[in-house]
Amino acid sequence: MSRSLRGLAVFALLALVVMSVGACAKKGVPTAPGFGDPAYTGVGEGIGAGAYAGMEDVRWRELGITSESEKREFLAKAEAFENRNVYFDFDSYMLSDPAKRILDEKAVFLRQYPRVRVTIEGHCDTRGTAEYNLALGERRANSAMQYLVNSGINGQNLTTISYGEERPVAFGDDEASHAKNRRAHFVLNY
Predict the structure, then answer these.
(1) What pLDDT score does 6 carry?
(2) Most confident of 27-36, 60-69, 116-125
(3) Of 17, 59, 62, 168, which one has the fewest beta carbons inside 10 Å?
(4) What's the pLDDT tens digit per position in 49-102?
(5) CA dihedral sign of residues 40, 41, 44, 46
(6) Which domains does the chain carry?
(7) At 187, is the pLDDT very low, low, confident or very high (cuts 50, 70, 90)?
(8) In 25-174, which ranges are continuous DSSP H helix?
(9) How far apart are CA 96 and CA 59, in angstroms?
(10) How far apart are CA 126 and CA 136, in angstroms?
(11) CB-based burial label for 163 (10 Å; 0-12, 13-18, 19+)
């Protein structure tokens, strides 16, 4: 094959790759008015809002939410719900009084939105073996779940998972970092 033909073949192949990538570009998804609009700067934008910003109207109605103000209120509460962790003492899955207060607030949210499902993640610091930390993370998640069930929350809407030490939020090897990693984290699923 001549040099010019080889160059033309390489150019054609590159053009095909570029066109393929362009064809696979993410398409815009229609959203409820206001949500997902780049100009929208209302309450609820952030960590918790991403999962709900593109929800269809039928899903909002399933939650009992019909107006834009109710959507913004839900998004703000959902973000607060997900951003408040329950923390544990070293090598413990017992709930402290501050942890119980946070869980009481979460129970209020879950009573207001009874169709929301929650995954409770159990996390640990890096001390101990991986197997031990997975078991401890599971006990932490179950402890938080049981408290919510005892508070009247439907247990069928709650699931648990343990990540042990695998998903730290703080990477230091000091007590302050360890304390941030000994937690139950809550993720809303709908």
Answers:
(1) 54
(2) 116-125
(3) 17
(4) 445 556 788 888 888 888 999 999 999 999 999 999 999 999 999 999 999 999
(5) positive
(6) 30-83 (no CATH), 85-190 (3.30.1330.60)
(7) very high
(8) 57-62, 68-83, 97-112, 130-150
(9) 36
(10) 12
(11) middle
